[in-house]
Amino acid sequence: MTSFSVGLLGHGTVGAAFEALLAERAEAIAATTGRRPELSGVLTRSRGDFDDILARSDLVVELMGGLEPARDHVVRTLEAGKPVVTANKQLLSQHGDELFGAAHTAGVDLRFEAAVGGVVPAIRVLHETLAAAEVERVHGIVNGTTNFILTEMTRTGASYAQALADAQRLGYAEADPSDDVNGKDAAAKMTILARLAFGAAVGLDQVTYEGIEHVTSADIAYARELRLSLKLIGTAERVDGGGLSVRVHPAFLYAGHPLASVDGSFNAVTIESPAITEITLSGPGAGGSQTASAVLGDVVSAMLPPPVPPAPAAPVEIVSDIESAFYLHLEVADRPGVLAQIAEILGLQGVSVKSVVQEGLGADARLTIVVHPIRESKFLAAVSLIGRLDFLRVPPRWIRVIEEVFE
Ligand SMILES: NC(=O)c1ccc[n+]([C@@H]2O[C@H](COP(=O)([O-])OP(=O)(O)OC[C@H]3O[C@@H](n4cnc5c(N)ncnc54)[C@H](OP(=O)(O)O)[C@@H]3O)[C@@H](O)[C@H]2O)c1
Q1: Residue 11 Cβ < 6 Å to ligand 1
Q2: What distance in Å separates the CA atoms of residue 7 and residue 30, rounded to the nearest whole number?
Q3: Is residue 243 lining ligand 1, measured as CB closer than 6 Å?
Q4: Is it the case that residue 82 has pLDDT exceeding 80?
Q5: Which of 72, 120, 143, 250 has the lowest tally of Cβ within 10 angstroms?
Q6: Which residues contact 2 (CB under 8 A, 6 or more apart)?
Q7: Where does the chain bind NADP(+) (predicted)?
Q8: Closest-CA residue to 189 (of 254, 257, 286, 310)
Q9: Sheet harboring 35-43: ordered strands across?
């Protein structure tokens, strides 16, 4: 039986797990593909030489992370006519056009299942199973750290800081969790999903993202009271009149939404299309062995001919001012006329109120207002005016509400 040489760039958490899994599964893969995969070389900062590994490999797996030299090595591998498997979301979200262009020109595979949602096979389903479906919207919980933190806040009533400390102690958050909690990691993953779902060249700089750092126990208590779930949601969707919106922000979900019950460090992606209504894929988020398993799945796919080089993505108009329902949290002096003044400002901007809950806080009151879907710019204009009212005790806070349910 012939062998299939795999060059491995990076031997950290995922790279080491990949090497072990490859050895364990080599016989089974040989039985499926007719070729036995074996490592041709490993590159780290202290070991191996890229040119030498490239010359001896049929395929290269990039698990170094970061932009350089990962970008250089991936491009040079593709230009040499050899397929690449990568788990590097930052690289794909910032240099996607160059990398997919190089793969297309060379007519070789560039596979990246592990870059999005742990073992959730969202890429494969979008690329292969749903290749003929017209996708309208993709929603994702694509960051396990933030989902773990929000789930802990809901389950135990802990503050954001306490839940983050727990996540770090249990290994669900890194020592520097910035890119997870500020939404950037999820934003990078949404550019990859948007590219596949809509054939659109979306870069990280075109995604609006917000994180969970400002979520409070009061928001969570409100969610629990109304049986809503608060999640960090990534969205890529077609917008009426053309264009795409790609964004990441915390959002309340009703219980009938498939992502509402995705808890802990799990990831999930919901794909909506008229042909299928919706399908949801969920599973464990990141982790060395889970990610290695998704990487190995890509290697096996690349070993099965013929490769399908992805078509170059088209430029797209990105729409940022989209409609959403909102939850608005205000702390005000408890005196007559306050609610009327707020209602007037909302009304003047065309914001229509769905519900108001008022709660006494001694001489002050807490108002929790949910408004019907409205263009974000109009809502924010109203919030800015409300923010100037002299009876406001703290700056207004708001969170988007996703109203869809599938029941
Ligand atoms: N960890 C996860 O759960 C997970 C999940 C999904 C996706 N990913 C992605 O998978 C990739 C790898 O993540 P990881 O957690 O395995 O990273 P890691 O533990 O930090 O390992 C990185 C490896 O790459 C090597 N490396 C880094 N820069 C290099 C350079 N300039 N030249 C040569 N070697 C270099 C390192 O070498 P040294 O050993 O010499 O330092 C190390 O072996 C990243 O793109 C990450 O985003 C990770």
Answers
A1: yes
A2: 17
A3: no
A4: yes
A5: 72
A6: 34, 35, 36
A7: 9-16
A8: 286
A9: 35-43, 2-9, 59-62, 84-86, 110-111
Nearest alpha carbon to residue 371 among 361, 384, 383:
383
46 C-beta closer than 6 A to ligand 1: yes
- Rounded Cα–Cα distance for residues 29 and 152 (Å): 40
245: phi then psi, degrees, rounded to nearest 5: -120, 130
Average pLDDT over every residue of 185-214: 95
CB 138 within 8 A of CB 235: yes
3-state secondary structure of 398: strand
**Nearest-CA residue for atom 15 of ligand 1:** 13
- Through-space distance between the first and last CA atoms of the chain, rounded to whole angstroms: 52
Q: What are the structural domains of the chain?
A: 2-115 (3.40.50.720), 123-284 (3.30.360.10), 323-401 (3.30.70.260)
Question: Which residues sit in the known binding site?
Answer: 9-16, 89, 174
DSSP string across 228-272? -EEEEEEEEEE-TTS-EEEEEEEEEE-TTSTTTT--TTEEEEEEE
Distance, in Å, from the CA atom of 95 to the CA atom of 91, rounded to the nearest integer, reads 6
Of 358, 142, 312, 159, nearest to 232 (Cα)?
142
CB of 200 shorter than 6 A to ligand 1: no
Q: What is the pLDDT of residues 105-133, one digit of tens each?
A: 999 999 999 999 777 889 989 888 888 88
Euclidean distance between CA atoms 87 and 112, whole angstroms? 6
* Tens-place pLDDT, residues 305-359: 765 556 677 888 999 999 999 999 999 999 999 999 999 999 999 999 999 999 8
Distance, CA of 325 to CA of 371 (rounded, Å): 6
CA distance 233 to 190: 10
Q: Which residue has the tokens 């490239």?
A: 54
Q: What is the pLDDT of residue 400?
A: 97
The partner residues of 305 in beta bridges, in order of sequence, read none
Task: Grade residue 207 by pLDDT with cuts at 50, 70 and 90.
Answer: very high
Amino acid code (one letter) for 72: D
- 317-340: burial string, b at 16+ Cβ within 10 Å, e else: ebbeebebbbbbbbbbebeeebee
Atom of ligand 1 nearest to the CA of 11: 43
Of 61-65, 169-173, 234-238, give the lowest mean pLDDT range.
Answer: 169-173
Token pair 């727990």: residue: 166
